Amino acid sequence: MFGPLTRGIYTARLAVSPEDVAAALALRLLCFRLGRGQTTASDVDEFDGKCQHVVVTDDRSGTVVCGFRLLFFPTAQTIPTSYAAQFYDLSALQNLTGPMLELGRFCLHPDHPDPDILRLAWAMLTGIVDQNGVILLFGCSSFDGSDPDRHLAALGWLSRHHLGPSDLRPRAIAAQTIDLRPLTTNTIPLLPSLLKTYLGMGGWVSDHAVIDPDLNTIHVFTGLPIASVPPHRARALRAVARSLPHAGC
Prior knowledge:
By secondary structure, the protein is α+β, with helices and mostly antiparallel strands. Helices cover about 25% and strands about 30% of the residues. Strand 10 and strand 11 (about 215-225) form a beta hairpin. The longest helix is centred in the middle third of the chain and has 17 residues, at about 115-130.
């Protein structure tokens, strides 16, 4: 088990108690539901019980300021049980050999924009990826709002510059999809921060987006082959992960 890691006033660790998980779910509710105008009382789904949850806490108050969940796939044959497989046909990924990791529900507390929080979260994730020999990190990267017109420029940019290899791209199975391939733009758009991080490390996206009315988002499947991370970026991430003190040690 990797971690916990500390940086300044923050600690990143795996959730180890029902209280930890409840705090992570409360932050998710704030970021994915209440912050988007919904009045639901929960953001729990059937995948939560299968996942490991990672939390970053402000050690002064114990507040969870960042969280995400991870679902580990020791072989590609188990990929159809992933969250993303509800929306995308991932059978092409079954040609890969090696462990994979699905990252989901990544969220940052809106009142805690300290960049050290994200540095710590990615250091924790780097350690977990390395510890488990993961070859592919993947998930769904979301744009707020389900109106396609709001995001055509961004989707066109992704289509022009960041489509995944044709032999690995998911096929469309969702009820509401947007084909990215006819879209194109040369104007660099504003992208969700998580997606921007994925792409900056060599990630790629599906050739279609999915409209998700439940979360009021439009998302694209995003894959990050660990071997594609630029060497200088990989060294920097691993250096941060190794340099941070392990809490309780």
